[in-house]
Amino acid sequence: MFQGWIKNTARLGLVGGLSLLMGFASSSMAQTNQPDQKQPKQKEKKNKVPPLPEGVKLHKDRNIQGVWLADGFNFKGYQTLYLTPIVFAGVERDNEVDTRATAMQELPDELVTSFRDTKLFTTVTTKSEDVKAKAKTLKLDNTIIEFSKGSGVGRHFGGPFGAGGQPVIKVRGQIFDGDKLVCVYEIKRSGESVEARMVGEAISSEDIQRNDIRVLARDLAYFFQRTAGAQ
Hints:
The chain starts with a helix and ends with a helix. The model is unreliable at 1-40 (pLDDT under 50). The chain is an alpha/beta fold. It has helices spanning 2-33, 97-117, 152-158, 194-198, 205-228; strands spanning 45-46, 59-61, 64-69, 80-83, 87-88, 91-92, 123-125, 137-148, 168-177, 180-189. A hairpin with a 2-residue loop joins strand 2 and strand 3. The protein has five helices and ten strands; from the N terminus they run H-E-E-E-E-E-E-H-E-E-H-E-E-H-H.
């Protein structure tokens, strides 16, 4: 009897062990057969670039990629140029937060400096409180519609005079006389200096873009002067 009890116990233990092993195998197979759970890809935050105003068709004007002027408009006879806060409507990349912020601070500063140098306006300002009620005023809205901070590695492999890895900034401006739209432009700058093209990998992207913003502002101010017949 004692020997029979031992055999039954051993048999039950074996069955239990096999059941446990089969349970593990079944669980493992179930996990293996489950589809891979992929991590969601990080999406770029993109603000939609607004369309051009109705009836506006841009044409190239020397070093300005696109320009439209209302009939008879030439920037003459205005006392004040008021620049509203810069708007960003390009692709927002997580690794460009700081460079975007820097560009949106430096762009209006450079524009104010360059527009003041034209002597076309008594007052050039980014502050609405500086606009006198009776002064004949132009209001300038600027929107960054394309932006990239660039890459030193990209400039290295782009070779001399290559565009690869250069930072990019493109701005659309709309100028109003009261409620009337009188000028629209789009201007883009990307690695404008000879140094940026020849030895761009040795120059920081921030310094290259800072120069691009400066060149953009000066070229735009020169366009104002030419249109007004001051150049």
